[in-house]
Predict the 3D structure of the following.
Amino acid sequence: MTLRYTGIWPVAPTPFNADGSLDLEGMRRVLDFLIDAGVDGICILANYSEQFLLSDDERETLTHLSLEHVAGRLPVIVTISHYATQIAVERARLAKSLGADIVMMMPPYHGSTLRGSEAQTYEQFRAVGEVGLPIMIQDAPMSGVDLSVPFLVKMAREIEMVKLFKIECVRAADKLRALIGEGGEFIEGPFDGEEGITLLADLDAGATGTMTSASIPDLIRPILTAHAAGDREAAIEGYGRVLPMINYENRQCGWQAAKAAMMEGGVIRSDHCRHPVPPLGPQTRANLIETLRPLDPLVLRWAR
């Protein structure tokens, strides 16, 4: 598969049954829905997949299932973040052996006090790069690690497999613009994240793709298409239409929005999240669906 690092690559949520066990058939339906939504690629086992609530065995099960089920229909990114470099490398090797196209990882961190230095972060990415899969660096506030533009450019220039960058920090557009300006041809895939909350500004800064949630990818993709074609008016109009939903998801629901929407539309049977994550409040959930319904997204129609 020839990869083009453009377009919308949503994070697939991990569905659980009401008792908290993995819903494997639901996972297959999530992947089929995303493919039918016209996305350009899919990311699994990311933060919006609740990777921090999964056991190692469950991660391996989901990696096998997802790559086997997608079966080359779209490129798949497997998230492999771990504080231990050895484990990150092992996860990358597994992903490669099963046919993954890209791995995504945050810099090494554990809690609020264990954070990799620049040297340690560089060494970890270099070790994973030796596995031979393209790497997307996730620059997210969750890690608490400051990844400066000069450091990101250094890794892009010196580590062959560091090719993609998911920038979702404060003032992402400024950072994307600086990253692209300083890194040039070495920045092959500048992406944004955060559900697309700053999408238009990030596209203006040079982002070629976005990693959103799985809630409304069919409505976000045309914004990228219009922007890439130079139709700024259409991009602004499309973005304005979906921004209330993106804002509600980003600020009120987080990753639970996609699961609630998928349950509402019959893609999955349960929007359960494992303890200690509390369920969405009834009014929050009702307001989410109220915000979503006028947009007539595929997620509410796919299973009907």
